[in-house]
Design brief:
Blueprint: H1 2-19, H2 67-79, H3 86-94, E1 101-103, E2 108-112, E3 121-126, E4 130-136, E5 141-146, E6 152-156
Antiparallel strand pairs: 1-4, 2-3, 4-5, 5-6
Length: 165
């Protein structure tokens, strides 16, 4: 039986050889396209690896002004006819709301991609990490953003410190 397998294999090889042209076989010439490439633009970096820093001695401390003081000043200007009454509405819209900054109360808390344990974990935050609470839904999940890195995600509100602290 083995000899028949070898005989069939040799016969198939010989048939393929003859069908492809045998000894008279000449491969077809391929046409090659010549493409002229442009030199890429070279981008260089600075020779130094040091980063620029800003000294705190160069900055000017701005006095803190409360929202009430701003509104009082605008109201006085309106009373003196120095400013149009529509400015009050604009100033009230420009006044930034206070941020709800809290700390992570648990020792290691998962920051998730959505409001629930079924969502993937983005990162794990250590206790005491400062976060800004953006929103709290009805189910007790808080949409938060880390103050230092700006990573936004969701965590259970019960794992956060009280808003007063």
């Amino acid at each position: 039986m083995k000899s028949y397998v070898w005989l069939i294999f040799a016969l198939m090889g010989w048939v393929y050889y003859e069908m492809s042209g045998g000894a008279d076989f000449v491969p077809a010439e391929r046409q090659v396209a010549v493409v002229e490439l442009e030199a890429p633009e070279i981008v260089t970096r600075a020779d130094t690896t040091t980063l620029m820093s800003v000294s705190s001695s160069n900055t000017v401390a701005q006095p803190e002004v409360s929202d009430e003081e701003i509104l009082r000043a605008v109201a006085q200007a309106v009373a003196l006819d120095a400013v149009e009454p529509d400015v009050i509405a604009v100033v009230e819209a420009v006044v930034e709301p206070e941020l709800d900054i809290r700390e992570v109360a648990g020792s290691r808390v998962n920051l998730r991609m959505g409001p629930g344990t079924g969502f993937d974990v983005i990162t794990t935050l250590d206790g005491g990490t400062k976060i800004e609470v953006l929103n709290v839904d009805a189910d007790g999940w808080a949409n938060v953003s880390t103050v230092d890195r700006g990573i936004e995600g969701w965590m259970a509100e019960r794992l956060l410190s009280d808003p007063e602290t």
